[in-house]
Amino acid sequence: MEDKVVKPYGNEDKSKKEEVREMFDNISGKYDFLNHFLSLGIDKIWRKKAIKALRVIKPERVLDIATGTGDFALAALALKPKEIVGLDLSPGMVAVGQKKMEKKGVTDVIKMMVGDSETLPFDDNHFDALTVGFGVRNFENLEKGLSEMLRVVRPGGKLIILEFSKPKKFPIKQAFGFYSKNIIPFLGKSISKDDKAYAYLPESVAAFPEGKDFTNILEKLGYKSIEAQLVSGGIATIYSGIK
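Structure (tokenized):
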């Protein structure tokens, strides 16, 4: 029996990829505000923690997949690389991100571009490091996307995946469960005016193969030295691997 594909709008005539692109285009104008507001700013701390794990390899070229408006790409500036590429499926999100980079004066280092994470437009072994924040659960074909990520990183390069997970311990499990299923969809809908986008978030988190299930997939695809670090009591996990 196949796992049910969780899509933002549940339209039978559209693929998950098409719906994810549409969803992020719809909410791109409100995304930054909602992202930081609904996470209470904790997402910034998670990104900094994830970026620290890349310092050991001193990357010169960094790729940020599912970059959205470029928050992870901006965090990667702390590594002082020569080049950061932020790639996202949604033209709307990339347009907002491009304006952000121009405003911050970092377009000489960060290049924002529209692209498909499952068919990356880069040569093999091109990047020293790769990051993806809260994006892999949106992949239509998870293994294909993870394989592409590995392909474009050089041997010895490091990949960091930051993704939501499901807390297991009281009281964080109960509190996060209520917050993600009730508060996030209500506030998200009210502010973004998209009925489905923020209801999709807890649904997609619930369907995602987290923890050992996810690290098993990484191992099968050829990732080495895999680690999984829970943050904020298991609300999110920082996965890392070496090519």
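The chain has eight helices and seven strands. The beta strands are 61-65, 83-88, 110-114, 127-133, 153-164, 224-231, 236-242.
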